[in-house]
Amino acid sequence: MSETVSLAVDASGAAHIVIDRPERHNAMTIEMYGTLLELIGQCERDAAVRCILLRGAGGKSFVSGTDIGYFTGFRDGRDGVAYEALVESVIDRVERIALPTIAVIDGWAVGGGLALATACDFRVCTDGSRFGAPIAKTLSNTLSSRNLARLAAAFGVPRVKKMLMLADTLSAQDALQCGYVYEVCGRDALEPTAAALAQRLIALSPVTQRAVKESLRRIVVEQRLDDEDLIEQVYGSAAFRDAVAAFVAGSSKR
Questions:
Q1: Are 54 and 115 in contact (CB under 8 A)?
Q2: What 3-state class would DSSP assign to 103?
Q3: How far is the C-alpha of 89 from the C-alpha of 146, rounded, in Å?
Q4: d(CA 17, CA 21)
């Protein structure tokens, strides 16, 4: 397991996964991707965990994507197909986390890091953060259609074209105005802001949150509208029955 990806769970039920490779702008190795997936699984198996916060260390970058050294071994386009499938497996896994997720961003979220942040449910960032995928002036590669669908849903197609085809980046305020970021704050306020959002999420129904997350994932990434299984799970849950009973009991006392 990579020591550059770590997990800590606090007493409130918030799990903190940290990407800690600041000397490489938190660029991900294949081993680090594997550790991230292992820690996600560990969180999901822990009944005490109610929310996951993902962050990068160092104050300059959230995640800068895959370490470019990985691409030196590519020989033809089939390597690219295999690589995008690998990245998609990680982004898809993050997106399918049943628990609420928050990307805590201080600095650059670019390329694969932008995709990772977008797969989270909410994003909070410092006022100096920037967002983009300037691959048209760096690697001359591309993103998978599924990741483009996620970005289009989050930013809108015109902004995504600017980000990828013109290699533009968005400021924190730009990201806030288009709804991509939940809140922008100073660096000193980042941790309390993220913690407050986590506590809001923890206090609300995980049954509702799981169903909404999965419905939106199907709509955005798979263009699916089938939801009978999700509706059945929600309306058949003890949480729903208990909430109805409590609401009716409270109304009768008014």
A1: no
A2: strand
A3: 11
A4: 13
Complete DSSP assignment for 111-145: THHHHHHHHSSEEEEETT-EEE--GGGTT-----H
Q: In a 10 Å sphere around its CB, with 0-12 CB exposed, 13-18 middle and 19+ buried, how is residue 248 labelled?
A: exposed
Amino acid at the residue 96: R
Any idea what DSSP says for residue 201? H
pLDDT tens digits, 94-152: 999 999 999 999 999 999 999 999 999 999 999 999 999 999 999 999 999 999 999 99
Helix pair angle (145-155, 112-119), 10° resolution:
60
Can you give the residue ranges of every domain in the chain?
5-202, 206-252
Containing 42, the helix (H) or strand (E) segment is helix 30-45
DSSP bridge partners of 155: none
| Structural fold of domain 5-202 | 2-enoyl-CoA Hydratase; Chain A, domain 1 (3.90.226)
Planar angle of CA 180, 182, 185, nearest 5 degrees: 115
**pLDDT tens-digit readout, 198-242:** 999 999 999 999 999 999 999 999 999 999 999 999 999 999 999
Exposure string over 17-54, b if 16+ CB within 10 A, otherwise e:
bbbbbeeebbbbbeebbebbeebbeebeeeeebbbbbb
